[in-house]
Design a protein that fits this description.
The protein is an all-alpha fold and about 270 residues long. It has a domain of about 170 residues: Orthogonal Bundle (MetI-like fold). Helix 1 crosses helix 14 and helix 4 runs antiparallel to helix 11. The longest helix is centred in the first third of the chain and has 32 residues.
């Protein structure tokens, strides 16, 4: 009996300690954003918030076009999310409810792309973007990944479990066009999955570092991860300013995840069981 009573408390304590360890880097990032470089490297390091945040922000905006970089990050993340939701929902709908030749083979080919390591795409991506004249252009960051294999798979699973074929057939018999069925019937039923995929895509695009590193050249065209990395130098890194920029870049994602964590979990599990 005592063991049964202690087990839940031990599990909660273990999860609590693990949560504190995971949250510690975020806490110190926000704390260091309010301290100067000298204070950050003092012993012992500061454990509570200081009053140098606006001075760090001034250094940050002097060294890089921070607000422009923030705007480009937001633009790229929103464009990538919108295109991904459009193409992946269309692909998932087609693979889930349409019957056509080589359907299974095509879907297997799409899924096989998940097995390819991401670094294998770096050189081909650069060569294609260079041939198209898209180097140093934001479109090079959101158009190549607009139809992700994971997104198509997620939408196909959700379509198969949440969109009745009878409803689609009834709409066709009533004379509704395929575009009308997609817009009026399929998309409203896909809202949970669309919300989950949109959240995952936005976070991945916002945090993308390798993509801008490959195709972006001008500092004013950098997205935030690449712009913040450019602040680092072997001898003169303003760590307080860097932490201030990282805190501003992280805060929207933290708020977004806190507001939509239930949506994320429900959307990922909704299509798991048919």
């Amino acid at each position: 009996m005592k063991t049964d009573k202690l087990a839940p408390w031990a599990a909660h304590a273990f999860v609590g300690v693990g949560s504190l360890i995971m949250l510690a880097p975020f806490y110190f990032m926000f704390v260091f954003a309010t301290h100067s470089r000298t204070e950050i490297f003092s012993l012992p390091p500061p454990l509570f918030f200081g009053d140098d945040f606006f001075n760090n922000l001034k250094i940050l905006t002097t060294r890089i076009p921070f607000w422009r970089n923030l705007g480009w990050s937001l633009y790229v993340a929103l464009a990538n999310t919108a295109l991904t939701l459009l193409f992946c929902s269309m692909g998932g709908y087609a693979f889930g409810l349409f019957e056509f030749r080589y359907k299974n083979a095509l879907f297997a080919f799409v899924m096989a792309t998940l097995l390819l390591p991401s670094f294998m795409n770096m050189i081909p991506t650069f060569m294609i973007m260079d041939a198209l004249g898209w180097i140093d252009q934001p479109r090079a960051l959101y158009i190549p990944g607009a139809a992700s294999a994971f997104g198509i798979f997620l939408m196909r699973q959700f379509v198969g479990s949440s969109v009745p074929k009878e409803l689609i057939e009834a709409a066709r018999m009533d004379g509704c066009s395929e575009i009308g069925i997609y817009l009026r019937i399929v998309l409203p039923l896909l809202k949970p999955a669309l919300g989950t995929l949109g959240l995952i895509t936005f976070i991945a695009s916002w945090n993308n570092f390798i993509g801008p590193l490959i195709v972006m050249r001008s500092p004013e065209m950098f997205t935030l991860p690449l712009a913040l990395r450019s602040l680092q130098s072997p001898v003169d890194t303003e760590w307080g300013a860097l932490m201030a920029g990282a805190a501003i870049a992280t805060l929207p994602l933290v708020i977004l995840f806190m507001l939509s964590s239930r949506q994320l979990i429900s959307g990922l599990t909704a299509g798991a069981v048919k």
